[in-house]
Amino acid sequence: YEYLNMDEHFPRRNRKPVAMMLKAVLVLALAASAFAYDNGMGARPPMGWNTWCTEDLCGLRDKCTDSELRSVADAMVEQGLDKLGYEYLNMDDCWSDTSRDANGNLQPNAKQFPHGMKAMVDYVHSKGLKVGIYTCIGTETCRGGRPGSFGHYEQDAQTLASWGIDFVKTDNCNKPSEFTEKELFGNFSRALNATGRPMLFSLCEWGDEDVTQWGHTLAQMFRIQMDHIPFWSTQKLGIKGAGKGLGQGTIDIIEYVATINPSKWVKQFGWLDPDFLETTFHPTLSAADSRTEFSFWSLWSAPLIVATDVRNLHGARKEIITNTEVIAIDQDESFTAGERVWSESPDGAGAQIWSRPLANGDVAVLLFNGHNILPKDIQVKWEQVGLPSGANPAVRDLWQHKDLGNMQSGGNFEVHPHDVVFLRLSNF
After folding, report:
1. Nearest alpha carbon to residue 201 among 181, 220, 223, 224
2. Which end of the chain lies in a sparser environment, N or C, as judged by fewer CB atoms within 10 Å?
3. How far is CA 172 from CA 100, 276, 288, 362, in A?
4. Do 367 and 397 contact (CB within 8 A), yes or no?
């Protein structure tokens, strides 16, 4: 039988009568019709860690190991990151052997995972955490000549389920040209769901082929542009990766997301993914850069997957990724994304104002200075962010953890280069 995509054909509010009329069909197709985005995983933007920039130069030699995953699991629990919502430990294109086993199954690199994959997964699960893994819709992964999943979608899905995997990131390299990306990702999405094990599906499609319009129907999170690398900007250097976007740096992503109206595409179980957080990657991403990165990802309800080392947290990295007030914006039940309401310059190099409504009626306001050298005094009027004329809200600074009192009509704030002031307005 063919898989039935309920969301493509029937609005969610009309499912009950449709299900009654087609009960026999749905019983036969139940496992297949439970599409990834509503399989019980990813009800809120996922939070966790990825191997990509830990003990590595962000993929240049990513060699994840059993011992690395276990040590990160220990550290996440010991430092209380799990209590903040960080629950996924994700391997990127680093774990697999370069060939399948004698039965055609994926297998881990035996030197990196001497006890096998399931033993490591069981250990992470014993800590109350979850494990994510990397795959590719093509014939090979993007790096290292490792086997892709094309031609093996059902087999690989069963293998990952047998290991107890909770999160599957699927990349977009070396794919056959006779299929659309929607077809390829859709086939793998259905194969994952057919295993009967709920797995969060992360669709790494790089923003091509109008993924914003269909990504949420196949996966709980979908990449909307080229890879992010730990620089403020690559656009002016002429450095670009595969996929949509203006560049690979933090401000490049901010400017690109502003052009796609993110609130139009973000929804529960369908999170817009700007790629990993590369918090305080030394020496190319400063504390200010990283604070800005974390703030925007949170404003957009984006996944908060930290790719730098989260063991022995201290200093700015700890301050940033453990900020519960900013995390609360990301996880807010409004399930939407903030939009830019004003920009000083067309290239984003000056002052900007962004805002987002929150579920309890509060409003999040992000003031951003994209200038490389000069501080900016940013004056915001509350009418710009949707409040009524003359509003006198209570204002909370989320990075200073400080109540600023009530401010009539608006306020003026000094914002340093590459930095932000993040406000929460209430009681207006």
Report:
1. 220
2. N
3. 20, 16, 32, 39
4. no
Q: Measure the CA–CA gap between 96 and 305, rounded to whole angstroms.
A: 21
Identify the residue whose tokens are 């022995």: 312
What is the token pair recorded at 270? 């369908």
Q: Which residues are catalytic?
A: 171, 227
**What tens-digit pLDDT sequence spans the chain (428 residues)?**
233 343 343 344 443 333 333 333 233 333 333 343 678 999 999 999 999 999 888 878 778 999 999 999 999 999 999 999 999 999 999 999 999 999 999 999 999 999 999 999 999 999 999 999 999 999 999 999 999 999 999 999 999 999 999 999 999 999 999 999 999 999 999 999 999 999 999 999 999 999 999 999 999 999 999 999 999 999 988 898 999 999 999 999 999 999 999 999 999 999 999 999 999 999 999 999 999 999 999 999 999 999 999 999 999 999 999 999 999 999 999 999 999 999 998 887 899 999 999 999 999 999 999 999 999 999 999 999 999 999 999 999 999 999 999 999 999 999 999 999 999 999 98
Dist CA 353 CA 373 (whole Å): 19
